[in-house]
Amino acid sequence: MNTRPRAALELDDIQRGVLSPRPTPYAATYILFRIDDRTHGRELMRRVRAVVTSAADTTSPLGDAWVSVALTFRGLKALGVPPHALETFAWEFRQGMAARAAALGDVGDSSPERWEAPLGTPDVHVVLTALAPDHARLQAAIDRARPAYQCLPGVSAIWRQDCHALPTETEPFGYRDGISHPAVEGSGITGSNPLETPLKAGEFVLGYPDELGGIQTPQPEILGRNGTYAAFRKLHQRVAVFRRYLKDNATGPEDEELLAAKIMGRWRSGAPLALSPTRDDPRLGADPHRNNAFLYEHHDPAGFTTPGGCHIRRGNPRDAAVAGEPRLHRMIRRGTAYGPPLPEGMLEDDGADRGLMFAFIGAHLGRQFEFVQSQWMNDGVFFGAGNARDPVIGSGDGPDEFTIPRRPLRRRLRALPRFVVTRGGEYCFMPGLNALSWLGDLHD
């Protein structure tokens, strides 16, 4: 760490996938690679350098399509990054996500022993992500990237996951997704909450001051600066189980939707309970200028409108008084659905694999992603709810319960099953564009 003052964000050296909000709708693909020959791995870095779009390039030949590349710790080792440089990376990144399973709550059905191969294994070295507004432009982006890894026998594509975002912007449980996006100082990108002060760039990009005034940068500086960390997770969603639980615990269809809203903190349309507490408001939910413009502390400190234990309030307590400073745990979060939707009204599982490819972007794996996952999602102490877990994505063994504050008597949902199962994941480093060139020019 050092504390030298830095210049404005160097957007032309930051991968576009770090800061740019995703288009709506969109399609995406994740492709994993193993490096068996470091010479070919370095050639891959040189080639992808010509394909990856920077955050400054908003007029890409493919429009709102772009390609991003990230490396695991083992990937950096496979390229021959010197040990003294490897030791300067975050220790969580050096361990890898599978090794952090206990801290993340990835136990039982979510344990790494049950992950989808090759996720969480030493074979995963490079993660290439392509994203575009539709499948045709996604294929064009992949075609543009394909020469980067073809004809390199020392580099093997070992896994692929195709994803999509529907025009309705909903995820498999039926909620509008991708609503909240933080404002990052110096990025030129407006956050989705006009009441939120922009966060320091160093919370999300390495090499810049963060909220505490420190600067985190793996060394040498050309390798670390303008990079960031990413956590990718494949999350299988038990949609039929979720639907049955709501139906079995509601008094009727209207109550079922209210329970769904109280569990999430939003109606399925995206309208927040904070702004529409008693009924859904689809027009509000679809309005990007209004559907995230709220805080908690002044109007709802006790959580009678938006329960303290609901999913969105756990993930981002905003200005609420909780154990932990919310601004130090803010994340850029991206979620992309995979698999076919379960037909509307179906309450039995059809056997299809469906869920969300989750991506965290941030400069602090420990106090951002891991803190939120372990302290806010898988515990309730931070807002006075004991060991209660997040009702949507909380992980661990055994059933849980969820309390809805109300007068005169609170409402308690008991025996919540696990609705989401981790199918795999990786901790990655997304280098700046100059760092990609540096990795390509490595010599033994």
From TrEMBL:
Q: Which UniProt keywords apply?
A: Iron, Metal-binding, Oxidoreductase, Peroxidase
The DyP dimeric alpha+beta barrel domain sits at 14-144
Q: Which PROSITE patterns match?
A: DYP_PEROXIDASE
Q: In its keyword annotation, does this UniProt entry include Zinc? A: no
Q: What is this protein called?
A: Peroxidase
Entry keyword annotation includes Oxidoreductase: yes
Organism per entry? Actinoallomurus vinaceus
Give the family this protein belongs to, as stated in its UniProt record: Belongs to the DyP-type peroxidase family.
Q: Which cofactor does it need?
A: heme b
InterPro entries, from UniProt? Dimeric_a/b-barrel, DyP_N, Dyp_peroxidase
